[in-house]
Automatic annotation (TrEMBL):
This is D-3-phosphoglycerate dehydrogenase. GO terms for biological process: L-serine biosynthetic process. It comes from Goekera deserti. Its EC number is 1.1.1.95. Belongs to the D-isomer specific 2-hydroxyacid dehydrogenase family. Keywords: Amino-acid biosynthesis, NAD, Oxidoreductase, Serine biosynthesis. The chain holds residues 47 to 359 of 579 of the full protein.
Length: 313
């Protein structure tokens, strides 16, 4: 008697290359992971579930998945997975921690430049049939101070790229190894000093109980007036309502935002403001990053379900 093929539940859109790497021998099923009423019953027969950031695998989802052996996060952030609960159940959690770091860093730089030069607003204005050069005066990046909050894999790539613009780089990261920052030409400072001294602030931290609400109304009140802020990390690290207030008052000059406290998000207070550049969580949305993330975790799922050793992705 041959046992039925293990069920791999794909709960979000993955690169086609991920399915190729997964190969034959699995019963591949699809579900919209953001729809809980569809996800929970679909998990009942799943041996593996493959997700991005829109699917939450919490204790409730795990309880609905008695056969589950692997949660595969085709990306980096594990804030949508209850790793402790999974581990306690013996469910392996795999991700692809370097797959989209370059894409995320490039997107943060794109948001920073777009915010500094008001590109989306100018684009919309010209498309609407108006030619308003004086309304879209921006600021240069060169010779300014850029504060990087979180000097991990992505923060480092952002710092290296912005160095080419001739900026002074400062960073806040309580966990960085001594010496590493110096090598990069980045001066490490406390968060207070970073907020006070930066002309541009870009956030590159995971979402944890420690980092949630890190930059709120009190912190925004201490920045240089007109600072430009970028968040392509996670919603909630910068308080959205406080940021909207600061953008309205001019305390924050402009913001480039890719992530929101609740996603999907179609009604943030940031969307109605003229000095924001907003994208719908696109940091990792490049063909290269999706390829790398999808294939890395597909390989891990295949090995895990075959009972083989799963090396780090
Ligand atoms: C990640 O953590 O990898 C990103 O948020 C990208 C994604 O949504 O997959």
């Amino acid at each position: 008697v041959t046992s039925p093929a293990p069920v791999v539940l794909i709960a979000e859109e993955l690169a086609p290359s991920a399915l190729e790497v997964l190969g034959d021998g699995f019963d591949v099923r699809h579900v919209d992971g953001a729809d809980r009423s569809a996800l929970l019953p679909a998990l009942a027969e799943a041996h593996a579930v493959m997700i991005r950031s829109a699917t939450t695998i919490d204790a409730e989802a795990l309880a609905a998945a008695p056969l589950l052996e692997v949660v595969a996060r085709a990306g980096i952030g594990l804030d949508n997975v209850d790793v402790a609960a999974a581990t306690a159940r013996g469910v392996m959690v795999v991700n692809a921690p370097t797959s989209n770091i370059v894409s995320a860093a490039e997107h943060a730089v794109a948001l920073l430049l777009a915010a500094a030069r008001r590109i989306p607003a100018a684009d919309a204005s010209l498309r609407a049939g108006t030619w308003k050069r004086s309304q879209f005066t921006g600021v240069e990046v060169t010779e300014k101070t850029v504060g990087v909050v979180g000097l991990g894999r992505i923060g480092v790539l952002v710092a290296q790229r912005l160095a080419a613009f001739g900026v002074t780089l400062i960073a806040y990261d309580p966990y960085i190894q001594p010496g590493r920052a110096q090598q990069l030409g980045v001066r490490m400072v406390g968060l207070d000093e970073l907020l006070r001294e930066s002309d541009f602030i870009t956030v590159h931290l995971p979402k944890t109980p420690e980092t949630l609400g890190l930059i709120g109304a009190d912190e925004l009140a201490t920045t240089k007036r007109g600072v430009i802020l970028v968040n392509a990390a996670r919603g909630g690290l910068v308080d959205e309502a406080a940021l909207a207030d600061a953008l309205r008052s001019g305390q924050v000059g402009a913001a480039g935002i890719d992530v929101y406290a609740t996603e999907p998000c179609t009604d943030s207070p940031l969307f109605g403001l003229p000095n924001t550049v907003v994208t719908p969580h696109l940091g990792a949305s490049t063909s290269e990053a999706q390829d790398k993330a999808g294939t890395a975790v597909a390989r891990s799922v295949r090995l895990a379900l075959q009972g083989d050793f799963v090396p780090d992705a």
